[in-house]
Amino acid sequence: MIVEFIDDNRDEFGVEPICTVLQVAPSTYYAAKTRPLSARAIRDAVMIPVLVTIWAANYRVYGAHKLWKAARRAGHEIGRDQVARLMRQAGIHGVHRRKRLRTTRPDPSAPRPADLVKRDFTATAPNQLWVTDLTYVPTWAGVAYVCFIVDAFSRTIVGWRVASHMRTGMVLDALEMARWSRGTQLEGLRCHSDAGSQFTSIRYGERLAEIGAVPSIGSVGDSYDNALAETVNGLYKTELIRGPGQGPWKTVEDVELATLGWVHWHNTERLHGYLGDVPPAEFETAHYAALATLSDALGIQ
């Protein structure tokens, strides 16, 4: 610290005057300048740009834990405490989520399906439980409304849509994407949402029935009844919409293009603590590989 301070100010004040004020012998400063770098200093000099590169490649949102996991996955032998220390030296840090505002509006006159989830957002395989919700993004050209459909098993975003309105049609578009990515017949699937009018509409229920799915609706005004979907919305707002270096958002199209990139990263690269710090795509691949291994062991075709 003292050597760095003298280096930063020597051109203006000179070494000796600074050392006199700091009560440090000039010979001590010069000895420190000529001393070979320690192994730790050399290692730090190598790892700081590596960590900054990994951090920047992940929307600049990772804190010490996830950056440590990402660095190890990239083949770097480094400790978590070292990552935290080097992040402080590099002046980088993770992001923190804010409280979420409600977007969907319940229709008190619409019949509502039962709550088939009861706040249990766990699943033992893909396509057993999907959750969905809406959020919004202010832009210079108006409000962009965003719908995500998330598989509770792996946290994969299976369908999404950005639109300039929040009518039922945008939810159906997200559902169409989910059908395209997951299959047209998913018997036993529950699709859980809040009581927004988009999710209690007849068209929404009919579209779910076409793929063998059943709707599930949480209670009105209770965020815990759709906590998983709201968690994904919160990540989206924190990591992309209000993320480091993002915005301002000028048009709905700008939000849509950025969301496309974020969803791909979320599904294929983002480390999820719930999944043991692996991406959703990798988690599902491991699941199907385990099933195949089990089938081979049991001789099942």
Number of helices: 11
- Report the C-alpha radius of gyration, rounded: 26 Å
Q: What order do the strands of the largest sheet run in, or round the barrel if closed?
A: 3-2-1-4-5
The structure class reads: alpha/beta
Output the helix-strand order.
HHHHHHEEEHEHEHHH
Task: Report on the biggest sheet.
Answer: 5 strands, mixed
What fraction, in percent, of the residue positions are helical?
40-55%
Give the CA-based shape: elongated
Strand tally, please? 5
Poorly predicted sequence stretches spanning 5 or more consecutive residues? none
Task: Give a short synopsis of this structure.
It is built from 11 helices and 5 strands; from the N terminus they run H-H-H-H-H-H-E-E-E-H-E-H-E-H-H-H.
Description:
- The protein is 48% helix and 12% strand.
- The model has no long low-confidence stretch (mean pLDDT 89).
- It is elongated and about 80 Å long.
- It has helices at residues 2-13, 15-22, 26-34, 39-57, 64-73, 80-90, 168-182, 202-210, 227-241, 252-268, 280-298; strands spanning 129-139, 142-151, 157-163, 190-193, 214-217.
- The protein is of the alpha/beta class and 301 residues long.
- It has a five-stranded mixed sheet with strand order 3-2-1-4-5, sandwiched between helices.
Question: What is the topology?
Answer:
Layout: H1 2-13, H2 15-22, H3 26-34, H4 39-57, H5 64-73, H6 80-90, E1 129-139, E2 142-151, E3 157-163, H7 168-182, E4 190-193, H8 202-210, E5 214-217, H9 227-241, H10 252-268, H11 280-298
Parallel strand pairs: 1-4, 4-5
Antiparallel strand pairs: 1-2, 2-3
